[in-house]
Amino acid sequence: MNLPDQTILIQKLLDGSIETDELHQLEQIFRAHPEAIDAYIDMSEIHSFLGSKEAESAQYGTVVPMERIVRRQKRRQLKVAALAAAAIVLISLLSLQLFWFQSKSSDLAFSTSPQSRFTISNTNQKQRSDKTLSPGSTLTLSQGSLELTFATGVTSILVAPAEITLVSENTLKMPEGRAWFNVPKQAIGFKVITSELEITDLGTQFGVLADPKNHDEIHVFKGSVIAKATRGNQSESTLYQLDSRRASARGDLNIISTQPDAFLTALPNSLPNITWTFDEKKPFQASGSHPAAATIKTKATGKPTLTSGRFGQALLLNGKGQSLETNWKSFQGLRPRTISAWVYMDSTDDHSDNSAIVAWGDHSTPTGKWTLQVSQMSPESDRKLRVSMGNTWATTKANVPTDRWVHLAATTNGSIDTNGALHLELYIDGINQEYSRKGSFAPQKGTTVTTLKAAPVTIGSSIHSRRALRKFLKSKLDEVSIYDGHMSPEEIKDLAQP
C-alpha cells in the first residue's frame, strides 16, 4: 500500500473532488487494508474539526465559549461513530459490487503461442470455450506458452510445463509454472498461490516460479507485493522493486537475486527455444525466447573458430578437442523437446567415433543421456542420423548427405509405446525418416540431469564424465537449436527451408 496515494485519495473524497476511477481505487485499498479505514476516520475528524474551527473563528474571533466546545466534542464523537459505520457500509457495498461483478464476468481468457499444447479440466459446468477458464477450471500446459487476461485487467505470460487453477477473478493457484504478471491499480489485492508461497499484489509487475522439484520463487520487478510462506515458519514480508525471495523447507523467505530476463513478458512467435547462431557480438553465446536463454553461459574449449555458415557465420570444429560447453542442464525426464541444426560434413571425414552434435545428461545411467549425432559403423560405411539415449538408440535408414549444408532434426512428444520405447521422429532436410531401434527400451525414465555425472548441454563432443574419454566432432555447425516442445512434420519442414 502506498501511503501518500492513500492520503491523497482520502483528502479528495473529503473535499468532494475525487474522480470515479480514484473512488474505485480507494475502495480497493479499504478492502485490502482494513487499517486504511482508521486513517479515513482520523482524517475525516480533522477535516470536520478544521471546518468548524474556521467557522467559529470567523464568528467569535479568538474566544470560543465553553458550552460550544462541549457540544462540539459530543458532535465529534457521534460523527466518528457515523464515519465508522459509513466505512463498514462502504465495504459492504463494495463486497456486493464485487460479488455482482464476479457473477457477471469472472472468466479468464487466454491466447497461445504457436505449437502450444494444453488441456482443461473443469469442475464448473459453465465453461464456454476452449480459450477461457471459468472459476474452478484447471489448465495444464505441457508445452509452449500462454497469455492470460483476467476480468480485472491483470495480464500474465505463462510458460510450460505449468498447471493453473482459476479460484476467482482475483486468485490463481499455480502448483507448477513460470509466470510473469502485470497487475493494474484497479486489481490491487490479486493473489497467486503456489505450493509454498502466497503472493498478494499491491499494484505491480512480478514473476513467480513454481517448481515441484525445487523451492518456489517470487521476483518483484515494479511496485510491491506481500509474500508469505505457506509452510513451517510461515514467514511474511513486503517486497519492493527488485526484491526477490525463495521459500525454504522451514517456511522462511531467503533473499535471492532478481532475474527479470528469466520470465517472458510477451508471447513468442514459436516454441520457447535456445539457439546458437554464431552471429552475435559474442558468437558462442546462446540466444532465444526460452526464459533460460538469459542465464546460459557458453564456454569454448580447444579454441574453435568461425567460418562462413548456412546463415552468416558458422562454428568450425576440427575434431581435436574443440567443443562448446554450457552451464545449462536442459530438459530432464520425458519432457517433450526438439533439437535441430544445420550441418556440413566432408565426405572424407570419419564419424565412427560417436561424437555428438548436441548432447546432455548422464551417460552412465540407462536412458539417462540425450545425444543427437551423425554415426558411421566404420570409416567406410554410410553416415546415419542417430539419437542415443544411453542403452537405447534410434538410427535412420537413409544416409546423411555430405559436402553440403543439411538440416537435421529430432523431436519427441515424451510418450512411451507399448514396447516401452520413447516416441521419436527423425528428419533429414525436413523429411521424416524411417529408422531402426536397438538396445533395451524398458524402463524408459528419460534424460537424467540431477546426478553428479550428468553433463550440461555440450555442442560438438560426447559427454563422458571423464573428459579424456570424450569424442570430438569434425564438422561445421550453424543455427543449433533446442526447442521446449514437440514439433509437427510441417513445423520441422519450415525449419529446414533454405
Automatic annotation (TrEMBL):
Residues 335-490 form the LamG-like jellyroll fold domain. The chain crosses the membrane at residues 80-101. Coiled coil: none annotated. It comes from the Bacteria. Pfam families: FecR, Laminin_G_3. Keywords: Disulfide bond, Membrane, Signal, Transmembrane, Transmembrane helix. Signal peptide: none annotated. The keyword Coiled coil does not apply. The keyword Transferase does not apply. This is LamG-like jellyroll fold domain-containing protein. It comes from Rubritalea tangerina.
